[in-house]
Amino acid sequence: MPDDRPIPAIHDMGGIARFHCTPVEHDEAPPDAFGKKVDALRQLLAQKKLMTVDELRRGIESIPEAEYFALGYYERWLRSITALMVEKGIVEKDILP
Amino acid sequence: MSDAPIFAPGAQVRVKDDWPERRGPCHIRTPHYIRGRTGTVVRPLGAFANPEDLAFARPAPKRTLYHVLFEQPPIWNEGKPGDTVMVEVFEHWLERA
Asked: Boundaries of each Nitrile hydratase beta subunit-like N-terminal domain copy (chain A) (predicted)?
C-alpha cells in the first residue's frame, strides 16, 4: 500500500497484516444484562426518532483505536449513543460523568 | 429513469481515492484497500438509500449498488494469480477507469 495514504479507521481492517490468520470466534456470547439494557435504549431512541442504526454505526466507527479495543461490544454502542445524544443537543455534555 | 445503473456488467471502474481520514467528517463505506483501485463491474444489485447520508440522518436518495470484482494479489499482497476479491460498492464511489 502506498505510504501517502492515511491510516484507515480501526473498523476498516481488511488486509491489515496484524489481523492475518486469527481464528474465527465461534462461541459468540449472547448479550448480558448490560448489553440488553444498551440494546433496549437503542430501540427506544429509534422509536422516538432520535437516532438510527446508521448513525450508531458512524459513532462506533469514529471511536479512537486505543479506546475501541479497550471497550466491549455494547460499551462501544453506549459510547456511540452518548456521543450522538450530545451531538444532537438532546443531552448536555456537562451532565455526563 | 435517472436511477438506472450507469455501469454495465464488464465495465472497468476505479474506486474514488477518497478518505474520511483525509476529507474530515463523512462516512464512506468503501473498504480502504480498494480506494484508488481498478476493478470490473459484475452486476448492479439494485438501488438503496445512500449510507453516507443515513449516517448523519440526512435525506438519503437511493443509489445503485454494484458487485465489483478486483484481483486479490495486488490489493492484499497475498494470494495467487486468479484469486479475486468481490466488494459491494455504491455508484457514486466509482468512476469510469
From this structure: 10-94
Is residue A43 helix, strand or coil? helix
37-96 in B: which are within 8 Å (CB) of A? 51, 54-57, 75-76
Q: Please state the pTM of the whole predicted model.
A: 0.85
Least CB–CB distance from B33: residue in A14, A52, A54: A14
Counts for chain B of helices (H) and strands (E), in that order: 3, 5
Instruction: Measure B51 CA to nearest chain A CA, in Å.
Output: 7
Report how far residue A79's alpha carbon sits from residue B4's, in angstroms, rounded to the nearest whole number: 39
pLDDT tens digits, one per residue of B6-55:
999 999 999 999 888 788 888 988 999 999 999 999 999 999 999 999 99
Q: Say whether residue B19 is in contact with chain A using an 8 A CB cutoff.
A: yes
In order, the DSSP letters of B28-65 are --S-GGGTT-EEEEEEEEEEEE-HHHHTTT----EEEE
